[in-house]
Specification:
By secondary structure, the protein is an all-alpha fold. It has a domain at 32-82. Helices cover 73% and strands 0% of the residues. Helix 2 runs antiparallel to helix 3. It is elongated.
Length: 102
């Protein structure tokens, strides 16, 4: 019975989420600044939830809620990492052409 809990239990799911989180963090560290900063901020928030799942004894509903939040958050970060840095620049940072006076 303990073997089945080890294979199919929450610990397996938490380990898998930690692995996905680690890979997303490694990819975020390789990116350039605007995407990197946003991705690392989101991953830091997700890490707190992941630590709660790993360290605290929680009821089933709380575990399920935190797990789903982590899955959605990691998917958002992966989508963010696939985007280009030009998509996240504010319009004020772009160089606008100067109008000539007539």
């Amino acid at each position: 019975m303990d073997i089945l809990r080890l294979i199919f239990g929450w610990n397996w799911r938490v380990r898998r989420l930690r692995k996905h989180w680690d890979r997303a963090r490694e990819k975020a560290l390789r990116k350039e600044n605007p995407i990197r900063k946003m991705a690392l901020e989101k991953l830091d928030v997700l890490e707190n939830n992941l630590r709660i799942l790993e360290e605290q004894k929680l009821n089933r509903m709380t575990k399920a809620r935190l797990t789903k939040e982590l899955q959605i958050g990691i998917a958002e970060v992966k989508a963010l990492l696939k985007s280009r840095p030009e998509e996240f620049q504010s319009p004020y940072q772009k160089v606008q052409p100067v109008q000539q006076k007539k």
